[in-house]
Amino acid sequence: MPENNKDNLYWKENIRILTILLSIWFVVSFLMSVIFVDQLDSIRIGGFKFGFWMAQQGSIYVYVILIFVYLKLMDRLDHKYHHDEKDILAQEQAEEDAEQAE
Amino acid sequence: MSLQVLTYITVGITFVVYIGIAIWSRASSTKEFYIAGAHVPPLANGLATAADWMSAASFISMAGIVSYMGRDGSVYLMGWTGGYVLLALMIAPYLRDFGKFTVPDFIGDRYYSQLARMVAVVCAIFVSFTYVAGQMRGVGVVFSRFLEVDINLGVLIGMGIVFFYAVLGGMKGITYTQVAQYCVLIFAYMVPAVFISIMMTGNIIPQLGFGAELTDAYGGGYLLDRLDGLHEELGFAAYTEGVRSSLDVLFITGALIMGTAGLPHVIIRFFTVPSVRAARKSAGYALLFIAILYTTAPAIAAFARTNLINTVNNAEYVSMPGWFTTWENTNLISFEDKNGDGLIQYVADEEINELTVDRDIIVLANPEIAQLPNWVIALVAAGGLAAALSTAAGLLLVISTSISHDLLKRNLMPDISEKQELLFARIAILFAVCVAGYFGINPPGFVAQVVAFAFGLAASSFFPAIVLGIFSTRMNKEGAISGMIAGIIFTATYIVYFKFINPAANTADNWWLGISPEGIGTLGMLINFAVALLVCKLTAEPPQEIKDMVLDIRVPGKPD
Lengths: 102, 560
Prior knowledge:
Chain A has helices spanning 2-35, 37-40, 50-80, 85-101, and strands at 44-45, 48-49. By secondary structure, chain A is mainly alpha-helical. Chain A has a two-stranded antiparallel ribbon.
């Protein structure tokens, strides 16, 4: 099926996006907030030691941003491969019309 | 108007709203009962998921736990938010594309096995029951603290309310009441937080006040520096430094994060939206709304702790402010003048320490500390109830659908009609409410530990099975089932041993690699992955139509 290759490519790009975003997630959650937190504490931002802030608040901000970035990137990917909702609906409409024409 | 009456009225109004929503959103089909017809808009679903997630513990106890643990409290702050990234990126869109009703549905179909389905059902019911026992108790506790209603009566009232809107509306009723409950709980949480932040740092945004300088009335200087200083003076470890081993912190955070992404009552929330894109979006909204509370909690923790120490340290007992006495009457704060000098010594050294503080005080006493009017206190009561009821409802629905859909319709009684299935679902909710209420009235002594158990099990059983099911077409039923069983047995044995069989041995010296029972779920998860991949290599590939199904859910399909 010709779709197979397209779907394969779509999935590969999907995985690429996930790998990048989840790496950031991992670094923020486990490296910055736990393993290297004491070292990061030597950086001060206002009233915060950076490591401490990352562990208690900063990581949560990053999580929210990561999900919305993911949403944006996936919208673009879906659009590129014609998987956005209006494209899917349009395609189905076209298929229905084709069937009716027969 | 007395505080009591005000609290009754406020709570009463919220209950009327929930009941009204329940009547408006009656479910008339299994699709509506299980997944709200898949018509919930992403924004509403985000609000509902946030309320579902934040329980009485998040609302009342978490800030207190963080204030007690200092930097180590980050295991809960990150642990209970980080999982949403995993959900959004690795689970929700694909399960939504799969398009069925429950998590055991996915496990049973993906692994083409009734045995897999049953393992999933047992896990889902166990995890949800352990979790819900604590919630009903929480409802009773809020009733008794704020409304001076006997705890057990409070549990019964809570049961009645949840039963009403869950039976009538199923997931639909639950979702829209959760939206209302989020509004109540976030308002109730933020109002005292904002006012305390203004009072102590002049900053109207508590998250920023966290890193701000104290006002002159409080002695100036950065809040966190002052808190560190006070801690060290009294013999406690510095607030902004941790005491737990890094490895244990890593594993606990991991178990909580992976557990979050494996909890059935959270995952099913993403079945209720119309499309794959809506699933991604609602995960983002959910975390945004959760983050509003979770980024405020550490701020409240620091404010309240600083304020507490400032107020009591070496001060005269007789000149304590009003809030101190109020909460002393409920035994959340108690003073024992060991050296008879009339002054309060609050220090780390157990011999000398004269003050015992229950951690729940941190949130409960906030409105009085900030000298807020009575209606704010009434609001906190309503908020605590909203948090407990919303979480309880989500859990009860999982139990009910596991019984009526996964156990009966898809396994033991496949020929029942839709009307019959709907009836069974409603009966199952009644049964689940009664059992949950029973545990609320007779709480097993280990309620708090049992929630950690639930996360450990979710992390070691569901999370790997679901992720492998989506990201590997090769994973077969033998691998998945062995992995799940290995993960569960390992995690359960470790936790049961240290928490129930031999609690005296529950110290860091006896733990494997220094990992506590709260963190063992991460290791259980790794074991699940390892066993699953190994067994999978040694056994037959899954049938082609299953592989096709996996390829299919990786591509967004037609929205509902």
